[in-house]
Amino acid sequence: MLWRILLIVFFLASPKFGWAAESFGRIVIDPGHGGYDPGAIRKGVAEKDINLEIAKEIKKILMEKKVACLLTREGDYNHAVVGLHGKEAKRYDFERRIEMAKGFNADAMISIHVNVSRRKSSGPETFYLPKDTISKLLAENIQKELHEIPGINQRQIKTGRYYLLTHTEIPCVIVETGFINNPEERQKLLKPQYRQKISEAIARGILDYLQDKNRETLLKNLQKKVS
Where is each MurNAc-LAA domain found (predicted)? Predict the structure, then answer.
């Protein structure tokens, strides 16, 4: 009995040991909006462009860490078909993105957006579906890393019932990387150096989540073997 306990403690103390697989995990990064749907626009700056730049950088970072990644869009387009308009087009676009995540057999989906508020707010925040404990863990990991960016306004994670969150079966969060209506934050989001910091923080949060997930899976398999 003692050796079983010692073995489990060893794996807990060595989170990077035991899963040197071909892929550390599978993640879908969703750059919100695109094409005819620009998202929020302020002073000629479109949300869709910022979303895509950050999403591409997150993918690059994760792939260097042996995480398989898929972007739901690689350029300035969305997935709505010709002839659809308004909410119908938006719903169709969402469904295609959700199908992509499902077909990719992803461990999680992270949707990148830029926020807007009536007041002058600042700082990134992460949303998850209420009572979804796994997505909450992902949101917490990402938000914790975002808080490490020097001088950033440390907002807290929030719950939401957005279409992507309510209709995606895998763990899913929405990261609002800043407020485009805030002139100072808008200028920061236009700078590659700042977007890099945001991207690195989100990527670290995703890696933390995957590490926790892999450790939990490893321990469950280990307990089965030693029982």
Answer: 98-207
